[in-house]
Amino acid sequence: MDVSLQLQRPLRFKEVLNHRTDCFKIRPFLGSLSFARTIQFTPWRCECLPSRVSLRVTAGAADFSKRRQRRLSTRSSKSSKGFGRKTKLGTGNQKRDQKDNGENEDSNIPTLSESEESNQTEMESTVAVDEESTIALYQKNKVNESEKEELKEDVPSKTKSYLNAENGSARKVVEDVLGLQKKELILENDTVSTSRDAATYEGKHFTDYAITEEKHLAGTETDGTVTGKDEKTIEDASAKLKLEMEEKLRKQEIERLAEGNFLKGNKIFVYPQTVRPDEDIEVFFNRSFSTLNDEQDILIMGAFNDWRWRSFTMRLNKTYFKGDWWSCQIHVPKEAYKMDFVFFNGQNIYDNNDKQDFCIIVEGGMDVFAFEDFLLEEKRRELEKLAKEQAEKERQEEEQRRIEAEKAASEADRAQAKVETGKRREILEQLMKQAPRSVDNIWFIEPNEFKGADKVKLYYNKTSGPLAHANELWIHGGHNNWCNGLTIVEKFLRSGREGGDWWYAEVVVPGRALVLDWVFADGPPKVATIYDNNNYQDFHAVVPKSIPEEMFWVEEEHQIFRKLQAERKLREEAIRAKAEKTARMKAEMKERTLKRFLLSQKHIVYTEPLDVHAGSTVTVFYNPANTVLNGKHEIWFRCSFNRWTHRMGPLPPQRMLPADNGSHVKATVKVPLDAYMMDFVFSEREDGGMFDNKGGMDYHIPVFGGIVKEPPMHIVHIAVEMAPIAKVNFGH
Questions:
Q1: In this protein, which residues make up the domain named Carbohydrate binding module family (predicted)?
Q2: pTM score above 0.70
Q3: What is the pLDDT of residue 5?
Q4: Which residues does 706 contact at the CB level (< 8 Å), separation at least 6?
Q5: Containing domain of residue 285, as a range?
């Protein structure tokens, strides 16, 4: 619906309003925003309200009070139906006089026609009455405070936003409306709100409609209460509105930048104009100013920090801005201090800013030196990671080599065990063929049938051999051709058997014995002096009930294999222990040599800590009393790294401060991560003077743990022949 909104000026100012711009309509519409309105201007005739300038909504005569009807009826003959009174604000001559005197500041507002001049006296007489009536009506009927605030805030703000796009005269009129005093606006709002309950014009009063629409768009119930879901809807609508407004402002600003850069002939610009780290930026490229003006595809290729960090390649999209602008979004990393880039068509046509490349400075982030330190730290982490991976790889390779070596050695041991088993089997089989069960009048075993682990009695006729006069008799025995050495030692006892001087000994047969082997002696091992060894052939007896030969030889081969493995592992362990001991001794010797070297010059210079590590802070102590700088008032420390070849060059001279230990002075230095050697000299002044450079050799202290290793020294040998006198070899 359309609701008429009228503008009035105080009569006492005698101002003239343009009858085509002093009235306008407010046409509300439903949208995504609760306060969305459109203001439509209509060329209605000028209608003036009582008293001061006010903003009011006229209504029909449906349910007006009698007093209001009487007041309106007195004016109905002088105004159009449904509108307020016409007020004469001055004559044309008076307006022309004001214009001539420079009193009129708005030259666009014309005077009223002379047909309306006759109404001036009548309208002036009714102003006071109308004002008193309005005030009385306000005191009698107060509207809800929320409705007043809503009307008070909604209408002027939306009116002002619309008028920014209207013509100058309409803007002037409504700006006057926006300049109303708070009291006047509240008074008129009260009047309008009270009239809402009395009458409707063209369907509904504006304030009632606005409040109802606000409730509807906000998702409220008919009773005006707001639920939790409604509150969330309102919050979502507010957030959406905020995002839409920000996006609109952003597009407007980018469009302004695009137009300005196009007029200046600039190829590129970025938004936001101040590029900061860890943010997204949009790069704009003008194709028409470039060598790529005929290309359909535009790509950007670049990196950060002089092409050393985070390279990227992205496709640009054409924008709607005037001037053939293309754009893409790029994330600036937090480590960036500069962005370098070029444009190309994806193939071989480039725009590289006349071989200088395009670049954008990143503000508020790292500088060049901080980025260098960052790169060193990243390289250190990478080297540590690589070292761990390399160590793990070497460990796995070593484990694989060990497994393969173990497998090869095991196969060798098994082969050797098989060979030895074959040899033993051949010898033992020959022995078993020759071994008897007993020898008449020399020895025999009871019982005749026995097996492994049985206890048997071995009888021996003392008078049959060289032990006839021995006081004692002992058996020294083994089995299976003495395969396990001496395993049987027993003392003989006299048996009392007839037919000779018989002695016996109780013997436990070994479990895996096929053949028993023994000799007779006059005493135990290491004590006996006289032996009966069957004329150097020893005595042998077959075990009648031994285990099957095939099973025996399989077990024998396995035992030999285990024995060979154990012996080999003992040898390998001994070799490994020896190698570790040698490496440890070398490291200890190297450490002692280095400490001895560093401590040898402690009376002149030393550091704390004694071992300098990369990335740490070290304090250098210097005793000038033992150098050429003895007695100098000042001592300056000049330092660099990596034998004076470090990327940062020599550090600024640093004045050394007195130390707590006597005549020493000290200076503190931060050791970079890529240092492998610390180099320094001393001087008497900041600008030079006398130096202590250790006789031209400078002072050097090794640095441990750096990410850069000292390059190896190349030795060159030169042989010069000085015939016929001598040959001289030079080496360095």
A1: 278-363, 453-544, 615-704
A2: no
A3: 40
A4: 614, 673, 674, 675, 676
A5: 244-366
Query: Could you give the CA distance from residue 445 to residue 505 in angstroms, rounded to a whole number?
Result: 10
Distance CA 104, CA 90 (A): 13
Number of helical (H) and strand (E) elements in the chain, helices listed first: 10, 34
Same-domain check for residues 537 and 611:
no
Domain count, the chain: 3
Q: Are 512 and 626 part of one and the same domain?
A: no
| Helical H segments across 219-279, by residue range | 228-264
Looking at the domain assignment, is residue 108 inside a domain?
no
Residue 352, domain CATH:
2.60.40.10
Query: Does 620 fall in a domain?
Result: yes
- Residues in Cβ contact with 127 at an 8 Å cutoff, skipping those fewer than 6 apart: 11, 50, 51
Domain match, 360 and 250 both? yes
> Rounded distance, CA 647 to CA 668, Å?
20
456 and 357 part of one domain: no
The pair of structure tokens assigned to 524 is 């135990």
Cα–Cα distances in angstroms (integers) from residue 223 to residues 31, 226, 235, 491, 646, in the given order: 22, 9, 21, 123, 80
Interacting residues of 193 by C-beta distance below 8 A, sequence separation 6+: 141, 143, 144, 147, 148, 151, 207
Rounded to whole angstroms, the Cα distance separating 268 from 258 reads 9
Whether 200 contacts 66, CB under 8 Å? no
pLDDT at 1 over 60: no
- Burial classification of residue 356, based on how many CB atoms lie within 10 Å of its CB (0-12 exposed, 13-18 middle, 19 or more buried): exposed
**Of 315, 334, 366, which closes a domain?**
366
| Residue 373 placed within a domain | no
**Taking the chain, what is the end-to-end CA distance rounded to the nearest angstrom?**
104
pLDDT digits (tens, 9 = 90+) for 250-303: 899 999 999 999 999 899 999 999 999 999 999 999 999 999 998 999 999 999
CATH number of the domain at 493, please. Answer: 2.60.40
- Say whether both 441 and 358 belong to one domain: no
Using alpha carbons, list the distances in angstroms from residue 730 to 175, 517, 590, 719, 725: 100, 74, 28, 6, 16
Asked if the structure places residue 555 within a domain, the reply is: no
